[in-house]
Amino acid sequence: MKIAFRPKLLDCLPGYNRAQFGKDLASGITVGVLALPLAMAFAIASGVSPTAGIWTAIVAGFLTAAGHWLSSGRLVCSASSARR
Fold it and tell me: How far is CA 71 from CA 3, 8, 9, 14, 78, in A?
């Protein structure tokens, strides 16, 4: 029986190098610097503690990344929205 599903992460790791890691690290820091204060602001505006917003941003970030590693797409886009 042939397995049709193969996570993209398994294909990317063998060719991953230090230069790519540096770019990924810079991207992660940039997103963190922007996303965490935004998540805190959304939490405060929603009437919950800023800590809840930080946890939500972290968990959502990991879920988005896991979805990217399991998919075949090259880019990942996720966004938050505040609804009343």
Answer: 15, 6, 9, 17, 14
Within 8 A by CB and 6+ apart from 42, the residues are 53, 80, 82
pTM (two decimals): 0.62
Residue type present at position 54: I
Q: What is the pLDDT of residue 80?
A: 60
d(CA 82, CA 46): 8
pLDDT in tens, 22-65: 998 998 899 889 888 999 999 999 999 999 999 988 888 888 77
Whole-Å CA distances, 70 to 28, 46, 74: 19, 32, 11
Using CA atoms, how far apart are residues 20 and 18, in angstroms rounded to an integer? Answer: 5
Query: What does the chain come to in residues?
Result: 84
